[in-house]
Amino acid sequence: MTKTKFISFVILMALGTTLTAQKKMPSNRKFQTTFFHPIGTNGIKSIDYTNDFSFNMLLGVNGGVNKMEIGGLVNYNKGDVNGFQLSGIANLNHGNSTGAFISGVCNILNKDSKGFQLAGVSNINCKNSEGVMISGVANISKQNATGFQLAVANINNGNFKGTQLGVFNLAKTLNGTQLGVLNIVDSIGKGTPIGLFSIVKNGYYAIEISTSEVINANLTYKMGVEHFYTIFTTGYTRYKNEDVLKYGLGLGSLFSLGKKNQIALEAESSQLVYNNDWNKLNLLNTIKTNYHFRLNQKLSLVAGPTFNAYITEKKTGNKYGTINVPYTIYNHESSKNKLFMWIGFNAGISLRL
Fold this sequence. Notes:
The chain is mostly beta strands. The protein has 2 domains: 3-200; 204-352, Porin, CATH 2.40.160. Helix content is 5%, strand content 67%. It has 1 helix and 29 strands. It has one helix spanning 3-20, and strands at residues 27-36, 39-40, 49-62, 64-71, 74-77, 81-87, 90-93, 97-103, 106-109, 113-119, 122-125, 129-135, 138-141, 145-150, 153-156, 159-165, 168-188, 192-200, 204-212, 217-225, 228-239, 242-256, 261-274, 282-294, 299-312, 315-316, 319-320, 330-333, 338-352. Strands 3-4-6-8-10-12-14-16-17-15-13-11-9-7-5 form a 15-stranded parallel beta barrel. Strands 19-20-21-22-23-24-25-29 form an 8-stranded antiparallel β-barrel. A hairpin with a 4-residue loop joins β28 (330-333) and β29. The longest helix is centred in the first third of the chain and has 18 residues, at 3-20. The chain starts with a helix and ends with a strand. Mean pLDDT is 92; it is low at 3-10 and 12-23.
């Protein structure tokens, strides 16, 4: 029998025990131990008892826990669990769960939960959850969740308040912070998604075309929310009759100054590719303070000063640099690279999508 089939078997056996048990309030006992349900001190009626302390060698099926439960493979409880619960494979709780829940594979909590959850693969909460959830693959909350979540994927079908840290984060309503590669939010309360890609319903999406003193043509795409968005930028210019391509990333915030006026604070870092040479460091870093004048709901004129720090290992002839730096307020040359700093200006047009 494979590991997957064995896990399915013990879970189905536990659920079958629940369906056949009588519907009555479980009695309390101080202690129970089980080898493999129903081989244990509470026998075939183990689901009728809530235990202060519960120890299960393989599969334990009980009415609930008041203080502590430890199981080799699976702990299953029909009622509430309070305290500490540890299992080699799974903790399966049908009632409310409060305390610390640690399992090698998964914690599945069918009703409201509060406390600390740690699982090798997944934490699954079917009702409201509150506290810390850490897993190797996924934290799943089917209703509202509050607290801290850490996993490859954090998935909340309800409202989330707190911090999600993962490669993929999903929340219906966000009041807090998401930090990941891909964040998806249905609506923003008092929240901020921070990631490479942040997809927010009714969020901020814009395309900007601009020019500056060193890059003739820039095309920028912005996504996220107005108070924090990701910038993807590319550009083109010429230097000494050769092509210079620009590609980079950045972050920005857009602040409203009235119905037609906004200010954007942005920081970008872009690699410059000169004459098809992709290897050497050739980095243009820019901080922008752009004024946005809204012509209508979609279109804005954009202009503002920039602070530029250009560091390059690339030489053309015997001089460092592959762009026409107009002047410098500071520069420093080492044996391997050169740094240029100057104040510049950029202007363009922004289209909100």
